[in-house]
Design brief:
27% of the residues lie in helices and 15% in strands. The strands form 6 sheets. It has an 8-stranded parallel sheet with strand order 13-12-11-5-2-1-15-14. A 6-stranded antiparallel sheet has the order 16-17-18-23-20-21. A 3-stranded antiparallel sheet has the order 6-10-9, with no helix packed on it. It contains 19 helices and 23 strands.
């Protein structure tokens, strides 16, 4: 009997299929248990989140628009940069009325970006380099060309109530329908659009071609959960959720929103002319996020079920959930963390630096310290901070806050406790590009007309990545690009900075390596010096190196005595690890020690120093 089971009739030794399966299961379980035990924290806590705007990252087919193959082609660059998580802005099927945020098919790739097969290859390549991939998720609205909307327009079931429809308040003397209320679109003008076919208005928080979905319809909620499952089935490691605070509106659509007297906005068609108590942060929104979180925490596949059941919040493949919530009141933002017993998002984006610092003169040590304290003071117990300098919706750091501060601000966000979010190109200090009215694509800008579009257009920060000094900055081999390349590309590009002795890119790579050290990954934090001119912080951990980060945020060169400004016991000198590229002095070059009693810093400079002791700091 044993001979029949373990030996083939041809005489060679043979293990039966059932035994092979048992052996594989034992090996897999052993590996997973070992890995789960080793993994002490979610992977995204040690990671840099690097945002890629796919239309502008790299074009492989010469049509002037970036594509998924272009991202895959730059995998080595991303790996060498020290990036562990990619967040990719929308690449889904779209008429492109709002640069891909108007989605006509949530579960397919738009042909201008490639195909599902291209996405599969991207995920495979990035995962082979231990890089996670987070997808943009746009649940608030779809395109008006989505099948759901077209069938809702015809009142076909079950789609009739998939969107927010309302009867007119009445009709004007000329017979035109009057919207049900005064709600305004983020893109200016009424948030209501009349459709004669249905005899009703539909609500659109953004562009008129982006009708808002109706989350009071439970079937619609299930449809959206199936979208999340579809992408996780393909290997997505998480989602960044766009425009979450607008998910629900009050049920009574006859309510007018009040005028925002404090805003000082005279244009009664501009969004900020009104306050928005009826269209933001409704309590039902939190219920939907809670449902997504529960589904994502229990979502599993055949290989990882056991480990995920053992340690669901700690498993290295646990999915990441980031939410975008712009709110003036920080309490409205941090609510989206939830709590340890009632988790919601892993983190809501921290846009306080973007929202509170608008130009170079706004940047001081005391203001930055206030922003940092505000986030830490309001952070729910056991939750993790994050730091955001820029995005596809905001002017680039070098243009908004000053080219001299690029390295210093990267030092701040990459070396503070928390997860930093870097918008593509910020690692080389890319700047906004001047875009003519004729070249403007952004509907938000175009809605304000040729005289005012510059103030509202987001195109200047969305221009193509500057890879080298060849035509189109190495972004595309085609005759033109979807947005113009910045004229400075011949000197400001990845290749030039890779070859330079010192560069923004090399500073960024050093910071990415440093943040993996225990002192930064798990260490404590202290602020020995906070003045208008200088902000300094220490990262330390018992039996590990102690680091001091010093930032001169003024517009002047300074000589600072760190001992004079602090009660902490600092050594007389420290070794330079890295510095801003604007400092060309021999004294502060990496390697030698510098005096902490007479530390010379050029304007906007950041220095990372290693102290000669690693003692507990009170």
């Amino acid at each position: 009997m044993l001979k029949k089971m373990f030996f083939s009739p041809f005489g060679e030794t043979r293990t039966p299929y059932s035994v092979v399966r048992i052996m594989i299961v034992i090996v897999v379980i052993s590996y997973l248990l070992k890995h789960c035990k080793k993994e002490k924290r979610p992977w995204w806590k040690n990671s840099i989140v690097y945002q890629i705007y796919p239309r502008s990252f790299h074009d492989t087919n010469g049509d002037g628009t970036g594509d998924l193959k272009g991202i895959t082609a730059k995998a080595d660059y991303l790996y060498d940069l020290g990036v562990k998580t990619l967040w990719i802005s929308p690449f889904f099927t779209s008429p492109m009325a709002d640069s891909g945020y108007d989605i006509s098919n949530f579960v397919d790739v738009d042909p201008i970006f490639g195909s599902l097969a291209d996405l599969d290859e991207l995920l495979k390549t990035m995962h082979s380099k231990d890089i996670k991939v987070v997808l943009d998720f746009v649940p608030n609205h779809s395109s008006d060309e989505h099948e759901w909307f077209q069938r809702s327009l015809r009142r076909e079931e079950p789609f009739a109530d998939y969107y927010v429809w309302a009867d007119p308040k009445g009709f004007s003397d000329s017979g035109n329908p009057i919207p049900p209320n005064n709600w305004l679109s983020k893109f200016r003008g009424s948030a209501w659009e009349w459709r004669e076919e249905r005899g009703q208005f539909y609500y659109h928080q953004y562009h008129r071609k982006q009708p808002d979905l109706n989350y009071r319809n439970l079937r619609l909620q299930e449809e959206i959960k199936n979208v999340l499952k579809f992408w996780m089935d393909r290997g997505a490691d998480g989602f960044r959720v766009d425009a979450l605070k607008h998910l629900f509106e009050v049920e009574d659509l006859s309510l007018d929103e009040p005028v925002n007297e404090e805003a000082g906005v005279e244009d009664n068609l501009q969004y900020n002319y009104l306050k928005h108590p009826f269209t933001m942060n409704q309590p039902e929104t939190f219920e939907v996020v809670r449902d997504w979180r529960k589904m994502m925490n229990t979502y599993s596949d055949k290989w990882f079920t056991l480990c995920r059941d053992l340690t669901p919040p700690l498993a290295p493949w646990a999915r990441l959930l980031i939410v975008q919530v712009y709110n003036k009141d920080i309490q409205d933002v941090v609510k989206y963390y939830g709590s340890d017993t009632d988790p919601l998002a892993d983190f809501p984006f921290n846009f306080r630096i973007i929202k509170k610092l608008h130009n170079r003169s706004d940047v001081t040590g005391t203001r930055l310290m206030k922003i940092i304290d505000e986030w830490f003071d309001n952070l729910p117990e056991g939750k993790w901070p994050n730091w955001v300098l820029g995005s596809h919706d905001h002017s680039r750091v070098a243009s908004r806050l000053g080219a001299d501060l690029v390295d210093a601000l990267n030092m701040l966000t990459l070396l503070l406790p928390g997860t930093p979010v870097t918008y593509f190109g910020e690692e080389i200090g890319m700047q906004d590009t001047e875009i003519s009215w004729e070249d403007t694509k952004d509907p938000q800008g175009r809605n304000f007309g040729p005289d005012h579009y510059r103030k509202h257009s987001r195109d200047p920060c969305r221009t193509p990545m500057q890879w080298d000094a060849t035509a189109n900055a190495g972004f595309s081999k085609g005759p033109s690009t979807w947005l113009p390349v910045n004229d400075n590309y011949k000197t400001l590009n990845v290749k030039a900075q890779s070859e330079a002795r010192e560069s923004h890119l090399k500073v960024y790579k050093t910071l990415a390596r440093l943040r993996q050290e225990s002192s930064f990954a798990k260490g404590k934090l202290a602020f020995p010096v906070v003045t208008d001119e200088v902000l300094a912080f220490i990262r330390y951990l018992e039996d590990e190196p102690t680091y001091l980060v010093v930032l001169n945020l003024s517009e002047n060169d300074v000589v600072v005595d760190l001992h004079q400004h602090t009660n902490l016991e600092l050594p007389p000198d420290a070794s330079v690890i890295t510095r801003s590229v604007s400092d060309k002095s021999e004294e502060n070059s990496p390697g030698p020690k510098v005096s902490l009693s007479a530390l010379m810093l050029v304007k906007g400079e950041g220095l990372v120093l290693q102290l000669t002791f690693a003692k507990e700091i009170e």
